[in-house]
Amino acid sequence: MAQIPPSALKITKMTVNKTYEMMNLKQALDYNLETAISMFFLNQEQEIAEAGRVLREKGLSAFLKDSK
Question: Domain residues of the chain, as ranges?
Answer without folding.
Answer: 6-66
